[in-house]
# Entry
Amino acid sequence: AGLAGMPWCGTMSFDTAGRTMMGLTSQALSEMVEKLDPAPLAYGANCGVGASDLLRTVLGFVAQGSERPIIAKGNAGIPKYVDGHIHYDGTPDLMADYAVLARDCGATIIGGCCGTTPEHLVKMREALETRTKGPRPTLDQITAALGGFSSASDGTGDQSDAPARQRRGRRRG
# Structure
């Protein structure tokens, strides 16, 4: 983007421990983004695990106080293998609730990732246009609306109890 003189946005996936594949927390990503040249117009999270986990990551971004817009692109539920194909169990109504909570968490660019269909997007837009903005939700409010988190680690900082990624050595032999 820098060589082409183009603006850019970026999202990363966070796993069940609230970290990217490279081990970054939401805090570490927020700090890294501010050092990039050129910096993105917006940044955030996509895919990963469930919508509740993604919103917990969004809260981690917002806690860093960046002025950049935050992106939230959650999956339409958790993928499950059903009758020979991948199925996402997040209903359009659930994704509508996710979209409103994402806005209330502080995200300003809101969409869907894996499993999101046009029906989901219609309900998300309708909810964002008709429901008033609320206060920042608590973690309990998020899980009450969208379901539980996939792990206890929240990924909002470098917590000592969060599992560290270990590089596997080369097989010998």
